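Propose amino acids for all 488 sites.
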């Protein structure tokens, strides 16, 4: 029997502390494809939906494309954009649809809706009926909610940070969906929660206890009845009422088995809750000093201003620290729409007096006046290389490459991820000529820059994605929640 599978993708890691909104126009820059415009050949190979699509094609299922809305991370989703995404998925569900596969992030937030993925899954369930299966692949930084658990039959999550197993995650979810449709398995799902959040800098498979937690998921799947096991250290820069870390286990018929393995993972997590929230990193000024005196080139990550965590990329922390080292080859990017317009309209090789940054004194994006030479007006297309976004495209918008002594600053007006060297290459720079290269990430940059350097530093900086979560003013978060309250 052939089946009809509705597929779609909605990935936004929302930062509710970042200003502005994520709109449809933002999705259009990275690929907003609707209905029959969503085709397999357009998808990057390292992608959950691409992997699932291949599985369904091999099974000769009829594929019903709904929408692909991928942007990585950004501010809260506008209501207009959310309504379109929800409508384009649900309106294509009729009685002929056998099942649904969605590639979701799991940590979005929309205007008026803190759990957009759960809301969409509930709408799908209402349209599809209670008996037909729904399979979901998630980023491991998803925030698991009861709406997700109650309306999905299958949930799989990334098992790597930096994320290198997107295809594995999508393939796993798709295979389990096929087995369900063929009546070979009957999936049941269980989620175990712990009241905690933590910054991302300790979430790396190469470090403990994070690596062991991910290994526990893999070991669980080798046990009888267990179909999938995932650990979800939720994206922390999202002020929502259902904020916690969790594990999700899917078992074949045996709810007790799913519960046992899920609780085992979160119980182990709870033993090390303090480890995930320790802060031992230095300021940008001290971090830059360490980087300049290490094996070069080195990479310095501005943790507080991570666009892959939803910030805009407008910090001037590294710029202000670097002005004392103008003879050193230090590269960075700064989003500043006003400055990008001025610099992009200035003739090449002219010197300009310009303000970079728009913030108040002592803020992470403090306005800083500099004299710089306009070296290049790049075309601006960024072709990402890091595993998280390999094959995907971003754009700097209006932009210019500025020089202050040996410093190089790309000033631009559109948010881009700084998880690999692709933005610098798009501005005509050769990474081998740098001494210090700026990244804006907590962990992902390590895989993105590994071909250039093995000397990595993370600076404890302020901004919308800080390591010290107590810098942020949460209004909706649950209480108690580690590390804000003491929980035994």
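Proposal:
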């Amino acid at each position: 029997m052939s089946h009809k599978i509705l597929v779609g993708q909605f990935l936004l890691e929302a930062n509710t502390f970042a200003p502005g909104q994520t709109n449809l126009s933002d999705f259009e820059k990275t690929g907003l494809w609707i209905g029959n415009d969503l085709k397999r050949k357009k998808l990057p190979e390292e992608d959950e939906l691409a992997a699932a699509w291949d599985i369904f094609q091999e099974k000769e299922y009829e594929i019903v494309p709904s929408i692909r809305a991928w942007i990585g991370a950004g501010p809260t989703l506008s209501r207009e954009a959310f309504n379109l995404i929800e409508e384009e998925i649900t309106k294509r569900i009729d009685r002929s649809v056998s099942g649904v596969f969605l590639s979701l992030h799991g940590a979005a937030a929309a205007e008026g809706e803190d759990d957009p993925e759960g809301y969409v899954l509930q709408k799908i369930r209402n349209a599809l009926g209670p008996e037909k299966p729904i399979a979901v692949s998630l980023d491991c930084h998803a925030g698991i909610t009861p709406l997700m658990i109650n309306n999905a039959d299958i949930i799989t999550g990334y098992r790597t940070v930096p994320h290198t197993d997107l295809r594995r995650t999508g393939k796993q979810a798709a295979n389990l969906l096929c087995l369900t449709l063929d009546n070979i398995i009957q999936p049941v799902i269980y989620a175990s929660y712990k009241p905690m959040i933590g910054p991302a800098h300790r979430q790396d498979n190469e470090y403990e206890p994070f690596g062991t937690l991910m290994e526990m998921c893999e070991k669980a799947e080798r046990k009888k009845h267990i179909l999938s096991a995932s650990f979800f250290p939720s994206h922390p820069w999202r002020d929502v009422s259902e904020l916690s870390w969790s594990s999700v286990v899917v078992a074949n018929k045996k709810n007790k088995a799913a519960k046992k393995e899920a609780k085992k993972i979160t119980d182990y997590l709870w033993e090390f809750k303090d480890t995930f929230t320790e802060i031992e990193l230095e300021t940008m000024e001290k971090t830059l000093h360490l980087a300049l005196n290490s094996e070069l080139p080195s990479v310095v990550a501005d943790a507080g201003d991570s666009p892959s965590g939803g910030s805009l990329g407008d910090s001037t922390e590294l710029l202000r620290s670097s002005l004392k080292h103008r003879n050193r080859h230090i590269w960075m990017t700064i989003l500043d729409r006003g400055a990008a317009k001025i610099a992009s309209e200035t003739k090449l090789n002219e010197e300009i007096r310009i303000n970079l940054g728009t913030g108040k004194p002592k803020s992470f994006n403090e306005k800083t006046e500099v004299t710089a030479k306009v070296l290049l007006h790049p075309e601006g297309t960024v072709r990402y290389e890091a595993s998280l976004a390999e094959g995907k495209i971003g754009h700097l918008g209006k932009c210019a490459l500025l020089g202050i002594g040996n410093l190089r600053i790309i000033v631009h007006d559109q948010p881009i991820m700084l998880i690999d060297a692709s933005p610098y290459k798009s501005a005509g720079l050769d990474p081998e000529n740098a001494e210090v290269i700026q990244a804006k990430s907590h962990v992902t940059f390590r895989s993105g820059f590994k071909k250039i350097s093995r000397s990595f530093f993370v600076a404890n900086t302020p901004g919308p994605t800080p390591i010290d979560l107590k810098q942020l003013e949460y209004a909706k978060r649950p209480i108690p929640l580690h590390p804000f309250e003491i929980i035994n």
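The longest helix spans residues 255-271. The chain has a mean pLDDT of 96.
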